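FAQ: What does a ligand-bound record look like?

Like this one, built around PMV:
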Amino acid sequence: MSKATFDAPANIAFIKYWGARDLEHALPLNPSISMTLENCSSRCTAELLSDGADDEVWLSEPDGGFRRPPQEFEERVRAHLDRLRRWAGKKEKFRIATRNSFPSAAGLASSASGFAALTLATAAALGKEASPAELSRLARESGSGSASRSILGGFVEWRSEGEDSHAVEIADADYWDLRDVIAVVEIGPKAVSSLEGHRRAHTSPYLKTRLELLPERTERVRRGITERDWSLLGPALEEEAVDLHLIAMSSRPPIFYWSPGTVGVLRAVRELRQEGLNAYATMDAGANVHVICDAEAEDHVASRLESLSVVGFVIRDGVGSGPEESPQDLF
Ligand code: PMV
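The answer part, i.e. the structure of the complex:
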């Protein structure tokens, strides 16, 4: 095959990747656990070019047009193409186009889905078959470590040990019908990249405590999922979200991802729980709040969040079954 297109989903971490033992290879300090999303995804088309050409990287627009990506993103894509060529033992250059299904203005992490889709489309265009474990490892090496989790569907654990650290599925997408109602309180790119956040995590005096607490919290999340037990999953999920931000805020120099809207949504989520709903909040390296809830609670959660003046708009998502090859090439 010389041209291939893949859709890869975004994921929301219940236990976060924050801090690396080897940042260049995205080898994490701790295992992380996520839910693969269904609607928020990236599509990538990779085509092999004939001899003498150079790699081309394009962002595909909803109107069918193309534009050049920001320089930093383009450099990361080119470096990943070099890595994939080395892995495949090939020299061919590529034309790459990529597009997100979700509004890029929402400030949601698109690097996990983007680099997962790039890995899958490029490997397929090169005609290379590989196991999910190997593809997950390759996606991790893109430098966006969380991309390793976007290779799999359902509920996913990215194991931290070893040089071949990769993600595995711990329960499939049908196992538990959870929903992710995303309250968008801030648009635009985040001020400090997660890459810089990983780097600064080591300067927080609380990182040591975080690493001591994590094994027990991670086990609660694991069991919460496998036993479908909100009393285990819910509190651990919120503790973990606050912990990531505690490390960010106590890094040197500090990183404040929260906005007043974040705090407003966190308060509304507490009220929803007082009304008897299973709804718990988590945030990645940004101000927007992912509210994880039961399918029956989704409408109620979404309308409450929409009614808050601090919320711009709400995106609804659920558990997805992982990446898929697409018959619709971007070019
Ligand atoms: O994969 P990266 O380097 O973009 O880091 C992801 C960081 C978080 O989204 C905050 C946490 C996570 O595990 O997804």
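Follow-up question: can I read anything off the structure? Yes, for example: The longest strand covers residues 32-48.
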